[in-house]
Design brief:
single chain; alpha+beta; Aminoglycoside 3'-phosphotransferase, Chain: A, domain 2; 2 domains; seven-stranded antiparallel β-sheet; six-stranded antiparallel β-sheet; 12 helices; about 20% strand
């Protein structure tokens, strides 16, 4: 992300003087955030008391009493400390107004007491069409933002229209998205980490390579310094939001798969097409970004990390324990793969990192597009930007087919569509995942272990789904784990 010669960004030297927001701001936000943050679906620390806040950055994009009259727009990055977990940094876009219309009352944090917004009601700005329009203006014309802690960037070929009507999407969970007209969607990352988010990095690399399997990013904005746990020491900018092409009339793969399962239908052509699309994305990423072979030591490190996650899951979820010994054999086989005389080289590259049916859209023309390249949001950003074998994405999608089937009680459906996906992948890549039994079993096991821990914490009624997979994977040797039909 260092080459900016082809983009138009906000200038680095022009900015009108702004008032000092720091005195009193955090003190006025503190009581409001303590009540509001834990209720947000994207807040990761639910159930744990909040210790203290640290103001990482604050930028007044529109001051109250400015061009929008009494309406103001404040951008805040705040670190949240909670006992038992590392501090998380959250991005807040806050509207400020003396009196909210009834349509926005449900988004309010409350009335500020003291500080620069004393007496004004603060609320979640993306839900206000007037303030969502301001964000689009800044992305369309970055020079209007000036310089400072935020940088807005737009591709010169973006062709962004003036004033498209904004609306907040209801589909996001870990982020907030605003749809503009029927042409663009802005994803606002709520929980942010220093560095370039892979959703921008990878989707931009794919778009620049001419891939038709990605929603093209056309603009984005970043924090330059003072960001999450930042010291302004010249580190890589922190990605805060990405504006991409919107795909009206598209349908997500999860909904389509569930409909097919309910009817015991034939979704194999779509599954094969999704396999081909996944292989095309992997090929494009391998051409655009580095690829490296993994030696025996690297495979042992990956297997060791998987075994550690299994141990943690077994300690936390008693239902996992009966399968632990059998599951460890999958990771033992992976650790020995580098020393195998018959195994070919295992290559690692940048991948999607959190691929499942909900991350695939079937566009109006029938073609598949992959979305949300940020990886598993719960994992550290540095880990999400590492190179891994592409089979990790394949394993994620196979688990998703299994979920769709078991969610509706139709286990045999999964086996047919897992095979179709693998066949489609092999048709493009020349590599059939079913002929990589050690790799696919290890990565599918690791994913199912993660699922068991997640479901035990958040959706106990769904825990039997990953447990069924763990029973199958623990009982089957690596050369049979993929082909064996899933348990109904």
């Amino acid at each position: 992300m260092s080459d900016r010669s082809w983009t138009r960004t906000s200038p680095a030297t022009e900015r009108a003087p702004e008032r000092d927001l720091v005195p009193g701001l955090l003190g006025s936000l503190d009581p409001l955030l303590r009540g509001w943050l834990p209720k947000q679906r994207w807040f990761a620390g639910k159930g744990l008391p909040i210790g203290r806040f640290r103001l990482a950055a604050a930028t007044e994009l529109v001051p109250p009493g400015g061009r929008l009259g009494p309406l103001g727009l404040l951008h805040v990055l705040v670190d949240v400390e909670q006992q038992g977990r590392p501090a998380d940094c959250y991005q807040l876009l806050l509207g400020a107004h003396p009196l909210l219309p009834s349509s926005l009352v449900g988004t309010a944090l409350g009335r500020a007491e003291g500080g620069p917004y004393d007496g004004l009601t603060l609320y979640d700005a993306p839900h206000d069409p007037r303030l969502a329009a301001v964000l689009f203006e800044l992305l369309r014309e970055p020079e209007r933002a000036g310089a400072g802690q935020l940088r807005f960037t737009v591709e010169p070929t973006a062709g962004l229209p003036e004033r498209p009507a904004p609306r907040v999407s209801t589909a996001e969970q870990s982020n907030t998205s605003v749809v503009y007209g029927d042409a663009f969607i802005l994803k606002l990352f709520r929980r942010v980490s220093p560095g370039t988010n892979p959703d921008l990095e990878l989707s931009l690399a794919l778009a620049r390579a001419g891939s038709r399997r990605v929603a093209e990013p056309v603009a984005w904005f970043e924090a330059l310094d003072g960001g999450p746990q930042g010291d302004g020491g010249g580190a890589e900018p922190t990605t805060l939001g990405v504006l991409q092409r919107f795909l009206p009339g598209s349908a997500d793969g999860w909904a389509l798969a569930l409909a097919s399962v309910a009817e015991d239908g034939d979704f194999t052509a779509e599954a094969a097409g999704l396999g081909r699309a996944t292989a095309e994305v992997h090929a494009s990423l391998a051409e655009a970004l580095p690829v490296k072979p993994l030696d025996g030591a690297a495979l042992e490190r990956i297997a060791s990390a998987m075994a550690a996650r299994l141990a943690e899951a077994a300690a936390e979820v008693p239902a996992v324990r009966p399968f632990a010994d059998g599951l460890r054999s999958a990771f033992d086989d992976l650790s020995k793969l580098g020393a195998s005389a018959t195994a070919g080289p295992v290559l690692a590259q940048r991948i999607h990192g959190d691929l499942h049916l909900g991350q695939a859209l079937r566009a109006a023309d029938g073609e598949w597009v992959l979305i949300d390249f940020e990886g598993e949001p719960a994992r550290p950003l540095a880990e999400r930007r590492r190179m891994f074998p592409p089979v990790q994405d394949v394993a994620g999608m196979l688990r998703s087919f299994d979920y769709a089937a078991h969610h509706s009680g139709n286990g045999p459906w999964a086996a047919r569509h897992r095979d179709a996906f693998c066949a489609g992948y092999a048709a493009v890549s020349g590599i059939d995942p079913r002929e990589q039994p050690v790799l696919i079993r290890a990565f599918e096991t690791d994913k199912a272990v993660y699922e068991a821990r997640y479901e035990a914490r958040h959706r106990p009624a769904w825990l039997p789904i990953p447990l069924s997979a763990l029973a199958r994977l623990a009982a089957a040797p690596s050369d049979a784990a993929l082909s064996e039909e899933t348990h109904p």
